[in-house]
Fold this protein.
Amino acid sequence: MNISAVLGSAVFLLGLMVGSFLNVCIWRLPDGEQVVRGRSHCRACRQTIPWFDNVPLLSFLLLRGRCRFCRLRISWIYPAVELAAGLLFLAVLNRFGPTFTALAVGIFGAALIVISVVDAQTMMIPDEITKPGLGAALGVSFLVPSLHGTANRWESLGLSFLGALTGWGLIFGMAFAGRLLFRKKLKAMGEEEAVGGGDLKLMAMVGAGIGSAKGLLVVLFLAPLLGSLIGLTMKIRFHRDLIPYGPFLSLGTLIALFWGDSIIGWYRGLLIGY
Ligand SMILES: [Zn+2]
């Protein structure tokens, strides 16, 4: 085995383990439970889960998706989150190499996974992630200036700060426009706002992590696109009107972090072509 295969496998395994921790956050944060303390329990029969039933992916496959004690189904979200985190870490290594930038993007992406799943399940974006996430994104921008393509720490921090303001401002503008445009429809649905307060904080965090107006435009271009594609499917299949926006903002953010420059380059090429 060559060195990059060993590194790749190690990073994938690390991602699976991180995914395991993300699952703890996903189930405990909305209930206001302690994330760090307390052993894991089966959500149906409350039995403590032994360590050998808590191995990422493997345990789910070996138990065929059922609790060892009460035989009730374990949510497929557990292995899906573990796999998503493993693949995210592998993709980050592949894109950014073994660098601090990769580490920062990996942690940022992990936070976005938690936000997406919690938002999809509860229609709430947890402040417990977005508030410290905003602080962490500003801090990491100062420590790892290469994240924003500069060598100057203060410039990087400034870009991150501007990004947070821009992200917040763009969503605030959209919320304002949405309220003017869809007032009747929102009232009929019993909703006050087209965009929730959680989305504002999420976009401030995303802006601080991306640190450029161009990158944010990629996010805001992709998120509604992904949202309307999937939203339309949900509306037809499940007759659901309200769809959480967090997963689409998160997915758009990851795409922008990975391929933002290429997307902007491609779009420029289109403009010059005409
Ligand atoms: Zn059980």
In short: The chain has a mean pLDDT of 87.
